[in-house]
Specification:
The structure is a single chain. The longest helix is centred in the middle third of the chain and has 16 residues, at about 110-125. This protein is about 45% helix and about 15% strand. The protein has helices at about 10-15, 45-55, 70-85, 90-105, 110-125, 135-145, 150-165, 205-215, 220-225, 245-250, 265-270, 295-305, and strands spanning about 5-10, 30, 175-180, 185, 195-200, 230-235, 260, 275-280, 285-290. It is of the alpha+beta class. It has 12 helices and 9 strands. The strands form 2 sheets. The chain has a 7-stranded mixed β-sheet with strand order 4-3-7-6-5-8-9, with helices on one face. Helix 5 (about 110-125) runs antiparallel to helix 6 (about 135-145).
Length: about 300
């Protein structure tokens, strides 16, 4: 067990649990743990084996019988360590661990809400250890179905569940209307065997860098130019006051790109970073989402290679 009243921020703690070292010497945030975090037996050497052990035993010393709230920061720290180990665990072991955890939270709406907040932080939000809809959605469903949680508190998580289910891989890309760079309006419909959809903003430096990387990926750029791969750049968070400025900047985008504004798109799509890339097939079904530009380029290359 890891003992001591104070533990450093969870990055250092998780490195210790997983058997690694750390060279971080920056100022440390001190968090008092809610319970003693487990450590795998010393004779366990494989990373997956150690991670599987943590999945099965991480919450053993947590007091699930308490009815009051715990310190949310301390719970978040524990959940961060838990999801760090989850990255290396066998999928079935991780999902079984989550299922067991939710069973132990049943009938305790206060703790269930706190654990769901922690799950949002580390499975869904911008500081997530991993983005995993597969793990986050069970927390959402458990919270929404719990009669002890008020409707007001459920609303945020109902929205998350709706967005995640609507944008899940295999689902049809939502029907949207775009205001194009020339001011025309059109319903977006993919025309190519596979289409890259980038959500971003022309003012965004990372979006400019992604545009450059796409243009430097000469094979992908050629496929876009000859229509084998579609390309759409969509501004999903625009307000009408900024339309003229945005459309003026979009005129500099390649003529083969569909570039435009989707008003209210940030409420329709699951967008967790800027820029964020989706891939969709010729039938408009989502292949993948929330990719960075490198992941999108590599996946397009794999799709093209497998289609030969």
């Amino acid at each position: 067990m890891m003992r001591g009243k104070n533990l450093t921020i969870s990055l250092l703690l998780s490195m210790a649990i997983l058997g690694g070292g750390s060279s971080y010497a920056a100022a440390q945030i001190i968090i008092e743990p809610l319970f003693e975090y487990p450590a795998p037996p010393e004779d366990m050497e494989g990373l997956q084996e150690r991670s599987d052990y943590l999945m099965n035993h991480f919450w053993d010393d947590f007091d699930f019988s308490r009815t009051g709230a715990v310190d949310q920061n301390a719970l978040n720290d524990a959940f961060n360590v838990y999801t760090t180990a989850m990255r290396y665990a066998e999928r079935g072991v991780a999902l079984s661990s989550v299922n067991t955890l939710l069973k132990r939270l049943k009938g305790n709406p206060v703790l269930l809400l706190q654990f769901t907040k922690a799950a949002e932080e580390y499975l869904y939000g911008p500081r997530a250890t991993i983005w995993s809809d597969e793990v986050y959605i069970p927390f959402l469903k458990a919270l929404i179905s719990d009669k002890g949680v008020s409707e007001a508190r459920k609303q945020r998580y109902k929205m998350h569940l709706d967005v995640l289910q609507r944008n899940a891989p295999g689902m049809k890309f939502p029907e949207i209307r775009l205001t194009l760079k020339d001011g025309r309006h059109t319903d977006f419909k993919p025309q190519s065997p596979v289409t890259i959809v980038e959500f971003g903003n022309p003012d965004c430096d990372d979006c400019r860098f992604s545009k450059l990387k796409l243009e430097m990926a000469h094979d992908v750029a050629t496929w876009i130019e000859n229509g084998e791969v579609g390309m759409a750049f969509i501004v999903a968070d625009a307000v009408p006051e900024d339309q003229a400025d945005i459309l003026a900047q979009l005129k500099d985008y390649p003529s083969q790109w569909i570039a435009g504004i989707c008003y209210g798109g940030d409420d329709i799509f699951d967008i967790r970073s800027t820029p964020s890339f989706y891939l969709i097939d010729r039938n408009g079904k989502i292949i993948a989402k929330n990719l960075d530009v490198t992941q999108a380029v590599n996946m397009i290359r794999d799709i093209k290679e497998n289609s030969k």
